[in-house]
């Protein structure tokens, strides 16, 4: 039994998760779900594939139900406690103390909590992972107890965004969203095209996932930037494939590419970036 923790946009994260299961042929049986998490049954392949998700934060291995399941947690000298479904400092302390008490016969242990939150953020887990264990409690219809076994890597996603040689901070979508969009296709492999590729954020995700990558844009400067970014990607992430990039008007794609595409993943031009919420009149 497992649990997945959704990201900042739970509805989008959930939609991506179900598309992801179809894309990779995972069989999922829901045990219990809430707005921010889902407990489910699946085979171990979900552990191997979790890193391909963009909108989910943690994968948790459930060890049991009820507080008595604390006895089944694996000893850790240093651990933290994440609780979902409750925001209760006293409860957090009680659960941490109970785990520590259970570990006493195996050795000394300590637990800690970051300020103002009751669930350990992924970036803090990664700094000590896997030596520091994150024990997780889900309060729903039942109480589920587990241990975080995989986390989305925010440091990798940040590197893919801000360390590229060419950047367009306002116009480019985040790499995390690009990953979500690829999963939403439900297509596992084949020829993938971004016809409004800009500096290549979505195309770089195609390459990271081992897909046949194609990109086009009507702006030659954007294509030049995309090529520089993909060269950087090959060096930093050791991607094995290259991408076919073309300066091309989207209305003339059939003249630019002589292949059949299995999926088109893109964010087209949406007008000038706004620095404020427009009035109803301005929006119309």
Automatic annotation (TrEMBL):
- Which terms are listed as keywords in the entry? S-adenosyl-L-methionine
Q: Which residues form the Ribosomal RNA large subunit methyltransferase K/L-like methyltransferase domain?
A: 173-277
Instruction: Give one Pfam family, short name only.
Output: UPF0020
Establish whether keyword Ubl conjugation is in the entry. no
User: What is one GO biological process annotated to this record?
Assistant: tRNA methylation
| UniProt key word S-adenosyl-L-methionine | yes
SUPFAM superfamilies linked to this entry: S-adenosyl-L-methionine-dependent methyltransferases (SSF53335)
GO MF assignments: tRNA (guanine) methyltransferase activity
Where are the bilayer-spanning segments?
none
Q: Which InterPro entries match?
A: RlmKL-like_Mtase, SAM-dependent_MTases_sf
Q: What is this protein called?
A: Site-specific DNA-methyltransferase
| Record organism | Thermococcus litoralis
């Amino acid at each position: 039994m497992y649990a997945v923790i959704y990201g900042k946009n739970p509805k989008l994260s959930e939609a991506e998760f179900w598309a992801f299961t179809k894309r990779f042929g995972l069989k999922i049986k829901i045990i219990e779900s809430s707005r921010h998490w889902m407990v489910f049954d699946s085979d171990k392949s979900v552990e191997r594939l979790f890193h391909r998700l963009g909108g989910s934060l943690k994968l948790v291995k459930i060890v049991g139900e009820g507080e008595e399941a604390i006895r089944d947690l694996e000893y850790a000298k240093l651990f933290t406690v994440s609780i979902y479904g409750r925001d209760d400092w006293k409860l957090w302390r009680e659960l941490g103390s109970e785990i520590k008490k259970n570990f006493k016969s195996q050795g000394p242990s300590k637990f800690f909590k970051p300020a103002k939150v009751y669930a350990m953020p992924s970036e803090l887990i990664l700094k000590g992972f896997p030596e520091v264990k994150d024990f997780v409690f889900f309060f729903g219809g039942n109480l589920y107890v587990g241990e975080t076994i995989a986390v989305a890597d925010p440091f990798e996603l940040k590197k893919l965004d801000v360390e590229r040689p060419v950047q367009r901070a306002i116009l480019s979508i985040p790499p995390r969203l690009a990953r979500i969009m690829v999963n939403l296709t439900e297509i596992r492999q084949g020829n993938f095209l971004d016809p409004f590729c800009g500096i290549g954020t979505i195309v770089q995700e195609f390459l990271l996932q081992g897909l046949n990558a194609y990109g086009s844009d009507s702006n030659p400067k954007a294509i030049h930037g995309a090529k520089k970014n993909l060269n950087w990607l090959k060096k930093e992430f050791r991607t094995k494939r290259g991408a076919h990039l073309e300066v091309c008007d989207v209305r003339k794609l059939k003249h630019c590419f002589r292949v059949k595409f299995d999926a088109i993943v893109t964010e087209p031009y949406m007008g000038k970036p706004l620095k404020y919420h427009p009035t109803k009149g301005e929006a119309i």
